[in-house]
Request: fold
Amino acid sequence: MGNQYLNPNIKVYPHFFNLAKRQQPDLRTYSIANWSPVHKILQDNDATVAKHKLTDGLVTKSVVKTLKKEDVDVMFVHLDNVDHAGHKYGYAPDNVKYIESIEKTDKKIGRIVKALQKRKNYANENWLILVSTDHGGSGTNHGKAIPEHTTIFYIASGKDVEKGEIKKQVYVIDVAVTALKHLNIDLKDEWNLDGTVTGLKQ
Ligand SMILES: [Zn+2]
Reply:
């Protein structure tokens, strides 16, 4: 299973910002990424602001600053150092360098969550935080249809989240659908979304 964007049909399967804005055109949508291909599927006006080719440190800085100063409704954040560490040192739980990279990334996410909680209007906002990945790895690579590569984590946090372990099978495609649901977007059948709302209270 690769993670390349091979001619994505973005008219039929657009970015979730696009679907959200069909019903809520005034949404302020931000995408701040290390890996630039994630922005290949953005069309004009999907993102209020899109920044890419930043290091993880710069992504985190930019996200913290944006959360402090801007009127943000939706934000997509992409960090890449854990994948870089996997390619360089190996994707393995007994690999010290790999685990170090996960811990450093965890700290960056901590800084982002703190910035979110410090927002002026945080008490009246209802943020849903979703953290996931598009693949795992083994050796120093990924891209095969084997559990070590296709198993992912999925973390949901917020007032609307059902606490505890998610019992059903989770897929990376659940992320966008869950985000759309949280934004009160009516999930249209004709959008042909394969994901399901995951981790929210019924
Ligand atoms: Zn990779």
User: Anything to note?
Assistant: Helices lie at 16-23, 56-69, 81-89, 96-117, 147-150, 174-182. The domain at 16-153 is CATH 3.40.720.10 (Alkaline Phosphatase, subunit A). The pocket of zinc ion is lined by residues 83, 87, 142 (CB under 6 Å).
